[in-house]
Task: inverse folding
């Protein structure tokens, strides 16, 4: 089975051969490296740009407005923040031109923790980019979804941000990419560049087939009827593992992979099975709890970041508290969308009234609307605040 990095690479090859992708570029994207995570090795349209994030975004916008279909890479999302104004322009061009100008560009960038990258290579970007109008934002958690989402992104007429969870880029999937060989070693020999001299290396691409994951469509990863857990990217496998542990304790959790962060699948999130049966809902993105950060003590000194199991333990505590609330929920309880600036404008368990809506607490447009002053879901909210 292909890894996520190989799946992205094969999707880009399919796109340059069949979907009109004209340029794949960024820092070290072209030969000989083919990207820091090797997601662009062997692509015929790949080339290296200067070390200039604003220049990369600006060139992609120019190519897209000129009728090309570029895919630009920012080597790590930590360095994309100085191009926010250009991203705002790219996202708003179609609206500002009254529909006269499309901007068919894809920006891909690795996000999140998981590679011991410290402060400058472990940040998240989903809480920021989902606030910028005009951008579609996707993040896969499996190689097959990465392949399908990249193909859909390369077909879109306006900007798409493709977020790559760097902790999952080396993880192999459980489903075959359409057209890939079933043997891992065979695929590696075909499309992975040698570690030694690469000057004469040419990839032998498999007969890849079209496969797309619709942007804006979530996926139910695990069926359950007591609590619904919504996640995406790196934290999705952690939630699945936590739900498996809880099943041994008699707690049945449904897992939804968001896949598209904006526009998200509101129908899947608003009426999950567990909520319809009177259960609870938990949202667990890496941007809120998983990315490496320093915490400050009262004495103004820094302490170490949480250990790697912090998020899994937090998921277990949240699931346990939410399940304890099952059966005590007011019949009029509803899980709804928080008013505000879109996907990132929801609070995490303060009934939509938390004034501190920072990037770390931004979720996916979900919040709990208090249905009565004595709503029993306060137990869930207290558990989240304690985390």
Result:
């Amino acid at each position: 089975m292909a890894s996520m990095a190989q799946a992205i690479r094969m999707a880009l090859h399919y796109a340059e051969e069949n979907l009109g992708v004209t340029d794949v570029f960024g820092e070290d994207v072209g030969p000989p490296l083919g990207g820091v995570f090797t997601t662009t090795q062997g692509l015929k349209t790949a080339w290296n740009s200067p070390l200039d994030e604003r220049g990369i975004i600006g060139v992609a916008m120019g190519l897209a407005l000129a009728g090309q279909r570029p895919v630009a890479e920012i080597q790590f999302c930590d360095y994309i923040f100085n191009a926010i104004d250009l991203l705002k322009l790219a996202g708003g061009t179609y609206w500002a031109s009254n529909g006269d100008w499309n901007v068919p560009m894809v920006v891909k960038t690795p996000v999140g923790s998981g590679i011991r990258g410290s402060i400058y290579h472990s940040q998240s970007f989903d809480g920021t980019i989902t606030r910028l109008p005009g951008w579609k934002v996707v993040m896969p958690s499996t190689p097959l979804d990465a392949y399908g989402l990249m193909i859909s992104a390369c077909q879109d007429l306006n900007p798409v941000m493709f977020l790559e969870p760097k902790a999952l880029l080396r993880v192999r999937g459980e489903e075959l990419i359409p057209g890939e060989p079933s043997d891992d070693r065979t695929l590696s020999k075909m499309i992975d560049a040698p570690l030694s001299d690469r000057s004469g290396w040419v990839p032998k691409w498999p007969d890849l087939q079209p496969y797309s994951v619709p942007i804006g469509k979530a996926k139910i990863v695990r069926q359950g009827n007591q609590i619904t857990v919504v996640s995406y990217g790196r934290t999705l496998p952690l939630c699945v593992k936590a739900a498996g542990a809880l099943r041994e304790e008699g707690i049945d959790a449904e897992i939804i992979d968001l896949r598209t962060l904006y526009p998200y699948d509101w129908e899947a999130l608003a009426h999950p099975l567990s909520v319809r049966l009177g259960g609870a809902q938990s949202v667990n993105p890496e941007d809120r709890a998983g990315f490496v950060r320093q915490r400050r003590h009262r004495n103004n000194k820094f302490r170490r970041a949480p250990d790697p199991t912090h998020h899994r333990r937090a998921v277990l505590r949240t699931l346990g508290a939410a399940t304890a609330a099952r059966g005590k929920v007011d019949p009029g309880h509803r899980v709804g969308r928080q008013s505000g600036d879109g996907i990132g404008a929801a609070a995490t368990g303060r009934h939509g009234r938390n004034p501190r809506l920072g990037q770390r607490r931004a979720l996916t447009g979900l919040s709990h609307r208090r249905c009565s002053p004595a709503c029993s879901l306060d137990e869930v909210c207290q558990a989240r605040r304690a985390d």
